[in-house]
């Protein structure tokens, strides 16, 4: 029997359509409007089958002494303040801080809702809009995450965009305080902070950026611009501090070059990076003994992060060991299982303490818990550790995976070239 012409046409059309689906799905407009729904559905299926909160990393602690690089641990005293940098003005006994208003509400920010997994670029776009920058999150996302599926944009990637693509400047610091945040706002500077986030539409804890634009002492709350929930969101000081703790009290201030002296004056001793890390490490150390549960986990994690910044890798590794020891005792629904999406400190600490197997196991646990393994940093650090243990073939495979998920990722490119291998 002769097949009708329209049937052949439908068959050809369906064949072309199916073969072309990958190309259609990869288009930016499709990724922006449809891709996130597909990714979210895939994630829900994966997490239902293999709950990520049940996956636990247990450090082994065994170092390979023949090749390890160790910076000796120099723990900070439990209750002391780091010495102020000698090159900065020293406070006098009579010095007092200028009083600030009981409330502030900055205006002039153009609120922007984020596209899928894009809170970092959207929040930075809002901060830049305060200084009359003409652009939106798409420009920033193209710079900070060439792969739209990238799960995280780091604070350093955000500041790099500002420094390289605008006429504005930034200051990035950790160990922030409620009063310091209020002082920036009172001086007319909105502040980007990175914080924990537990949304009603998501599976568990994750990281999130917001732009803080106001405060009220009478209400004991901050006002911030949220790329997910909307403009002028509010949160009490106590809850705000708890969510901020999850990211080492990290904050970014964007400012015009003529305001540099004012910004540095507000920072005081925190303007010095080394002092800032020591201050943050001490703050984390003090909190360890006053907190419990998930907040104590974050405090240990913060101590480790600051010690990594101070190149005290052995001390940092010990701090991370304490954090990971607490993790199994956190109720499953509260576990911050996405933590390694946002921070690489444990990789630095374990690798430079010669604990290569711990790096490999942590990276594997992190990637296995994801709906799709798109963390270039985890592949990169696992590659370095595999290479250190003699598995060059495995290292090359991981380096290429890092480049697959983050095209042009410089550390992976550099290491492949050093190995004499074409990326």
Query: Tally of extended strands?
Result: 7
- Proportion in β-strands: 5-15%
Low-confidence stretches: 66-95
Major sheet attributes: 7 strands, antiparallel
The helix content, as a percent range, equals 40-55%
What is the CA-CA span between the terminal residues?
A: 54 Å
Overall mean confidence score, pLDDT: 85
CATH class of the largest domain: Alpha Beta
Helix and strand element order: HHEHHHEHEEEEHEHHHHHHHHHH
Summarize the structure.
The protein is an alpha+beta fold.
In words, what does this structure look like?
- This protein is of the alpha+beta class and 423 residues long.
- It has 2 domains: 49-76 and 311-418, Tetratricopeptide repeat domain (Serine Threonine Protein Phosphatase 5, Tetratricopeptide repeat, Alpha Horseshoe); 103-271, Cysteine proteinases (Cathepsin B, Chain A, Alpha-Beta Complex), CATH 3.90.70.
- Helix content is 49%, strand content 10%.
- The protein is built from 17 helices and 7 strands.
- Strands 1, 2, 3, 4, 5, 6 and 7 form a 7-stranded antiparallel sheet that branches.
- Helix 16 packs antiparallel against helix 17 (410-418).
- The longest helix is centred in the first third of the chain and has 22 residues, at 5-26.
- 41% of the residues are buried.
- Residues 66-95 have low confidence and may be disordered.
């Amino acid at each position: 029997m002769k097949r009708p012409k329209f049937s052949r046409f439908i068959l050809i059309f369906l064949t072309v359509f199916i073969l072309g689906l990958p190309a259609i799905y990869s288009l930016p407009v499709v990724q922006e409007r449809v891709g996130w729904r597909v990714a979210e559905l895939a994630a829900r299926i994966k997490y239902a089958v293999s709950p990520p909160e049940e996956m636990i990393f247990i450090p082994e602690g065994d170092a390979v002494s023949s090749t390890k690089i160790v910076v000796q641990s120099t723990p900070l005293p439990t209750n002391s303040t780091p010495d102020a940098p000698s090159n900065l003005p020293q406070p006098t006994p009579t010095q007092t801080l200028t009083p600030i208003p009981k409330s502030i509400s900055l205006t002039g920010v153009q609120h922007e809702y984020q596209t899928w997994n894009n809170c970092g670029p959207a929040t930075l776009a809002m901060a830049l809009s305060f200084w009359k920058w003409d652009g939106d999150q798409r420009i920033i996302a193209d710079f900070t995450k060439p792969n739209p599926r990238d799960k995280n944009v780091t604070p350093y990637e955000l500041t790099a965009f500002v420094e390289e693509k605008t006429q504005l400047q930034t200051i990035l610091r950790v160990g922030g305080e409620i009063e310091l945040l209020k002082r920036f706002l009172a001086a007319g500077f909105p502040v980007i902070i990175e914080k924990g986030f537990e949304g009603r539409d998501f599976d568990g804890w994750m990281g999130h950026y917001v732009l803080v634009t106001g405060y009220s002492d009478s209400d004991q709350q901050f006002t911030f611009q949220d790329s997910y929930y909307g403009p002028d969101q509010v949160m009490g000081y106590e809850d705000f501090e708890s969510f901020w703790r999850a990211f080492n009290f990290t904050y970014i201030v964007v400012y015009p070059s003529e305001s540099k002296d004012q910004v540095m004056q507000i920072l005081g001793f925190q303007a010095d990076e080394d002092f800032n890390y020591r201050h943050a490490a001490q703050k984390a150390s003090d909190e360890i003994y006053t907190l419990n549960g998930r907040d104590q986990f974050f405090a240990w994690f913060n101590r480790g992060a600051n010690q990594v910044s101070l190149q005290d890798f052995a001390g940092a590794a010990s701090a991370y060991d304490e954090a990971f020891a607490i993790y199994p005792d956190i109720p499953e629904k509260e576990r911050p299982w996405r933590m390694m999406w946002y921070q690489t400190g444990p990789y630095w600490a374990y690798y430079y303490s010669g604990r290569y197997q711990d790096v490999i196991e942590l990276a594997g646990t992190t990637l296995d818990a994801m709906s799709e393994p798109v963390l270039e940093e985890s592949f990169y650090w696992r590659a370095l550790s595999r290479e250190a243990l003699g598995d060059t073939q495995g290292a090359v495979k991981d380096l290429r995976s890092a480049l697959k998920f983050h095209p042009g990722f410089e550390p992976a490119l550099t290491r492949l070239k050093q190995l004499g291998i074409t990326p």
